[in-house]
Every structure is written in C-alpha cells, then in structure tokens.
Amino acid sequence: MDEVATMHKVITMTGQVVDNIDPSQLDNPTPCTEWTVRDLLNHVVGGATMFGLCVRDGSVPDEKLGELMMGDNLGPDFKASFHHATADAEEAFALPGAMDKVVKLPFGEMPAGEALNIAIFDVATHAWDLAKATGQSTDLDPEVSAVAYMVAQNMLSDELRGAGIFGPEITVADDAPVADRLAALAGRTP
After folding, report:
1. Beta strand 108-111 pairing with 102-105
2. Is 75 left (phi over 0), alpha (psi -120 to 50) or beta?
3. What is the pLDDT of residue 165?
4. Considering only Cβ atoms within 10 Å of each terminal Cβ, which end of the chain, N or C, has fewer?
5. Residue 116: predicted pLDDT
6. Rounded CA gap, 72 and 81, in Å?
7. The pLDDT of residue 32
8. Distance between CA atoms of 39 and 34, rounded to whole angstroms?
9. Sequence-ordered list of residues with C-beta below 8 angstroms from that of 7, at least 6 positions apart, any chain
10. How many Å is the Cα radius of gyration of the chain?
C-alpha cells in the first residue's frame, strides 16, 4: 500500500465533505458525542498541522501542541483552513526521506509510515462523522474506506476502547457500505 497516495485520496474525499458543509451546520452535533461539527473540523485541521510539523521537524514543541489541541485552528474560513492544513501535511509526508523518519507524537514515537496510517484512519473516520452530522451521504469512496478499515482493524485495541477514545464496535451487516463498517468499527452507529 502506498500510504502517501492513500492519504491524498483520504484528503480529497474528506475535502469534498468539508466543501459541502454549510456554515449554518457548524454547531450541529456529531457522532463524536463531545464535539460539534466545528469542534471536529478544528480537531482535523489541528491534527493535520501537527502531523505536518512532526514529519518536518521530528516533533511539535509543547506550546505549539497546546495551541493545536486547544486553540482555534479554523479562523474565519473553515474550508480554506482545512485545505491549507491538509495540503501542508500531504506535502510533508511526500518529502524525500519522510517515510524513513521517526516522529514524536503526543501518543508516542513511531515511524512516519505508522503515523500516516493513523492519520488515514482518523481522517477517513472523521469524514464519515462530518458527512453524518451534516446530512451528506456516508457512502464514501469504497476504496479509500476499505484501506482505512484495514488500518483500523490492525490499530483499534481494547486499550484504546477502554480509554474512551473509541466506543465498542457496533454490529452492522456484512454487506453494509465499507464506510459504515469503518464507522461501526470505531464505535459509531451508522
């Protein structure tokens, strides 16, 4: 699997969802029960910025990390902020040698390729969350969703579920769209 090419597809898919969000929907609740659409977009933009910095610099300084996790990453134009942050992260992962680096994220040190897989899963899942919260189709790109689903199967552990980061897996039909199976694996109800 070419993780950089897959991330490009995830960003493109998610960008289509973001571009169809009306500003009046920013206060809508999401399947991430603690977050509104605005909060979830802020998380995705902050995460993209964090991943880009980690790949370029090896880590993110604590003060910058605090800003990204707790501050406003959207500014006056949430769509432009999303596209800028994701393009920057994508550019960082495509740099020569980037995938050979070890990066330090808030949840541990790991090879950049492993970090990119986390981003693929996270952004694809949140694309589904945003689509669901804004009344868009959740039948997202099946090829991209299948890769994110495969990553999630290898990544989601009882430890992550026990920490409250992800809910228990929801049972869905085997023939449900793969994006819905991904969401259910992450504890969302399709």
Report:
1. antiparallel
2. left
3. 66
4. N
5. 92
6. 10
7. 87
8. 9
9. 89, 90, 93, 116, 119, 120, 123
10. 16
Per the document, the length of the chain is: 190
- B/e letters for 152-170, b = 16+ CB within 10 Å, e = fewer, are beebbeeeeeeeeebeeee
Which pLDDT value is given to residue 106?
84
Identify the segments of the chain with pLDDT beneath 50: none
The residues facing 109 across adjacent strands are 104
Q: Is 146 exposed, middle or buried (0-12, 13-18, 19+ CB in 10 A)?
A: middle
Q: What is the DSSP letter of 189?
A: -
Cα(34)–Cα(53) distance, integer angstroms: 26
How big is the CA angle at 175 (ends 171 and 178), to the nearest 5 degrees? Answer: 80
Global model pTM greater than 0.85: yes
Residue-by-residue DSSP string for 30-89: -SSTT-BHHHHHHHHHHHHHHHHHHHHHSS--HHHHHHHHHS--STT-HHHHHHHHHHHH
Domains with residue ranges and CATH for the chain: 3-185 (1.20.120.450)
Q: How far apart are CA 185 and CA 174, in angstroms?
A: 12
CA geometry: angle at 56 spanning 55 and 59, to 5°?
65
